[in-house]
Amino acid sequence: MNAILKRRSIRKYTTEPITDEQITLLLEAAMSAPSARNQRPWEFVVITEPEKLQKAGDVSPYAQMTKTAPLAILVCGNLQREPQQDGFWVQDCAAATENLLLEAVELGLGGVWLGIYPVQPRSSYLQALFGLPEHIVPFALIPIGHPAETKNLASRYDAMRVHRNAW
């Protein structure tokens, strides 16, 4: 619960770099997510080049913090790894994204989940920027860095949204 409650959307970062070891741990956490039929349809683009981070930040007006982050990870779905084409890749990539964000907290890092899929202009922009093949669909862009802001723990439990055995 501690990591879950500490996970907040962090949009301001220091200039301290992220190590290769930290990147590997983030990706290991992401790839430890549950997956329908164990298809693991995820692919990840690790973005550290300042020029690419700048351009990735132009994907939407809500992505400006990407321009000052030392790292961003683009979580993508590989449609060829989902032979039944039933759309579970979206859930799998969401689980991977949340695992990545929780590991960031454990590492003393902060990040924010920027939604890309299903907004087609955003997907198309990032597909072109990173030269993704057609069967690779950008799902979420996650800027990550050492937090330059502090947010309080927040429990968002709401008993009014819990229904037992029926609505």
From TrEMBL:
A Pfam family hit: Nitroreductase
Nitroreductase domain residues: 4-58, 62-146
GO molecular function: oxidoreductase activity
Organism: Candidatus Moduliflexus flocculans
The name this protein goes by in its record: Nitroreductase
Keywords for the protein's UniProt record, in alphabetical order: Flavoprotein, FMN, Oxidoreductase
